[in-house]
Amino acid sequence: MKKMVLPTIALRGMTVLPDMVIHFDINRKKSIHAVEKAMQTNETIFLLTQKDIDTANPVQDDLYSVGTVAKVKELIKLPKGIVRVLVAGKYKGMVNTVSESDGMLISDIVTDRDWFLAPDNLTQIAMIRSLNELICRYAAVNQRFSKDILKEWLIAKNLQEKVKKILADYPVDYTVKQKFLEMSDVNEIYEQLARMFIEDINIFDIKKELEDGIKEKVEKNQKEYYLREQLKYINEELDGTDGSSEIDEYMEKLESLNAADEIKEQIEKEIRRYKVLSQGSSEANVERGYIETLLSLPWENSSQDSDDIENAAKILDENHYGMKKVKERILETLAVRKVSNNADAPIICLVGPPGTGKTSIARSVAQSLNKEYVRICLGGVKDEAEIRGHRRTYVGAMPGRIIDGLRKAKVKNPLMLLDEIDKVSNDYRSDTSSALLEVLDGEQNSHFVDHYIDMPVDLSEILFIATANDLSDVSRPLLDRMEIIEVSSYTKNEKLHIAKEHLVAKQLKKNGLTKKSVRFTDKALAKIIDGYTMEAGVRELERMIAAVLRKVVRKNYTVDGVNIEKQIVITDKNLSEYLGKVKFIKEKASRKNEVGIVRGLAWTAAGGDTLEIEVNVLGGKPELILTGNMGDVMRESAQIALSYVRSVVRKNQIFEENAIHIHIPEGAVPKDGPSAGITMATAIYSAVTGKPVDASTAMTGEVTLRGRVMPIGGLKEKLLAAKTAGLKRVLVPLENKSDVEELEEEIVQGLEIVYVSDMKEVLKLAIVK
């Protein structure tokens, strides 16, 4: 160990080891001054390596703490201020301090002339033999390894000499050589050197395996090419065609296909497979159909959605009267897309009675958004394969309805209407509702896999709109994926506007007539609505208008066609000439108060209706008799109503000596639900006490054993029915107050709506004292 102070060169990207002879170029002034200073003294210089090669002016912290003392052998000045230095490493040195003086780096070091000490003789022999074996294995796998260097490494008999020769010529990064320089334990140096050899030998082995595999594949491809050419020639000789025109057509379509690379690769693989199949085989026909399906799908093709909110609102208003909530929701979606550029499509479910325009509103939404429109009817679908597709192994396999809809739309972002989603059915073989979950789940449908396509298809940009009449038949997990928007029954005023603004003009055109030839008065349309239709929507209303126009055409038909000289006006007076006598007479409110008869309100698929619930007290065996085609829930409501009345009426002998008979007229019509609870309770109370019920009052609400009034649904339709029947007052559960506040003014106008929370309030309001 010896202390020295030497001029120092900071090396970038290289490490010089003891006994290594190497030349390098320097251009930093500090380094040039250090070399010149060394040449003026004893030609000795200290070489330190920078930790980061990008450091321009390194200080002690930027340099490694171990370097090499070297002898400057030669100095050559090159153009542009570059100096080439030839040095020979002598021994390593450990840095105490590095400072700058006279425009160069000066290092105060402690030298160590023995880089590492050799082990005992036997250990040294074992290490040398082991290294020689590794050197030979390395040379065997590295075909570019120099035989001269191999010889140099093998002839070194001394372990120190061998290590220095190996590290001088081994192709490793300078940081690895620096680590070796910093080591002083011979065992550590040997282990690291052996590990380095073994890792590189393994790398070369793996590389050779990869190259052999690639070579084998290339040879296989060449063999397949040769066989295909032979097969092509054989096919030409057999039927005079080579099938290449069809293959070329598929390849041309594939080149122009807008799809991801992995999709194109898979399709190309299928085309190559089809190419080697016998053209007349059934397998070839299956493969042909599969390829044509893949090429016809809009993998990355999309249409530009319209973001003109004003135009969308105009289109929706032109095509549909009312439907305020639906229109607002669509316009909200448009506004959000315009602001955020978010392509995520919502999944909307329109729920309402038949004929209320659920399907037609979806078509108008597609028009307003400038989207392609695809309608998929799910009514009666009971096979999961209708949604997910059939596996290609089956005869007659084809993709599911979702993929088929995409193929028809020719874009990946159409509006897809899933019509009658509540009509899907399941059997013991498959669950259609579960198959729809993946389609409608925003977290999963970006990689929807159809069994036939067998590749992920992105459905996330499709705007799904589902329609349903009754949500009770829709599975809960499926319902959770959708945003529910209720499309309720139309009021008489709404039906009148729809008929005037849409239906009449549509049917005039369909029947070859004009506005100048036939006109409907408002009273005629109102009479059709009241007397000839009984529905929540306007489908039957449109049929009645069409029936009138057909009669007009038939009456005025001549050989030359329809001849109408003077405009025909359809009024409420002459309407029966075209449609016959009135079909429906609305049930009106009773004129007198009666005992045991209460007017209830009901929701039906055709809208709202009023029901007179009748109760009689009969002598004989004590029992509860229920008639009128009641469902299980309504029967339970009747039992609860009876239990409540028994708890509040003190004359219990009435119940012990008499039967209570509850009847709901129109016995052929099934009835169910809990909303007649307070109506039945009031009717029983009236019959038992002999007190009459106010005939101008109707009520709806579920009742509990303790007399609490619970909220119900279908309130809009029920209030419309009450208004049509001429009732003045309606008792509504208090918890339904928010529902009433959302209704249009024309529905509640003329009705006194009283909110009740307990049966005591109901009886106080309904019973006439």
Task: Give a short synopsis of this structure.
The chain is an alpha/beta fold and 769 residues long. The chain contains 27 helices and 26 strands.
| Largest sheet: number of strands, sense, barrel closure | 7 strands, mixed
Number of E-type strands: 26
CATH fold descriptor of the largest domain: Rossmann fold
Whole-number mean pLDDT = 84
Ranges with pLDDT <50 over ≥5 residues? none
Broad shape: elongated
CATH superfamily of the largest domain: P-loop containing nucleotide triphosphate hydrolases
Strand order of the largest sheet: 20-21-19-18-22-25-26
Radius of gyration: 46 Å
Please give the share of residues in helix: 40-55%
Number of domains: 6
CATH architecture verdict of the largest domain: 3-Layer(aba) Sandwich
> Given this structure, which CATH class of the largest domain is correct?
Alpha Beta
Q: Kindly report how far apart the N and C termini lie.
A: 123 Å
* Estimated structural class: alpha/beta
Subcellular location: Cytoplasm
Pfam families: AAA, Lon_C, Lon_lid, LON_substr_bdg
Family: Belongs to the peptidase S16 family.
Protein name: Lon protease
